[in-house]
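Comment thread on ticket #2218

A.B. wrote:
> Attaching the input chain for the structure job we discussed in standup.
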Amino acid sequence: MNLHLLISSLRMSLKDLSGPSETKNTPAPYRAIYGFVLWLVSYVFLIIYIVWAFISEEWLHVFGLTYWPQKYWAVAIPAYIFTGILLFGFVIYPSINLLITPPLNDLRTVLDENCAFTAGRGIAPITDVPLIEVCENLYL
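C.D. wrote:
> Ran it. Output below, let me know if you need it in another format.
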């Protein structure tokens, strides 16, 4: 614990010696160009998809477009994507959160480096009160 405080104080003092930071907060200009091109390409693909989905096969053959997939995929691909998003949002993501959350009897849920036990019965300073003390005050 004391070693952690020593390292953090050394980092702060070295940061003060290095002077002001010279990093820019603005994004690079090429990012705007890439974003605009991505926006244009996505709209072109959306228009192609809508044309393919709503124009009949006969009209596509008139224009010489005979190599398109079946119209089934115009409905199936968005349905699969929507199902995948729902599966991720309602099953996979909560499951990952449940897996990485420690159980209630684990010390990581009870104590951490920011908690401090209150001394006496006066008005305590603003601290992170341990879970054990909260439960004792609320339920015992």
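A.B. wrote:
> Thanks. Noting for the ticket: The longest helix spans residues 72-100.
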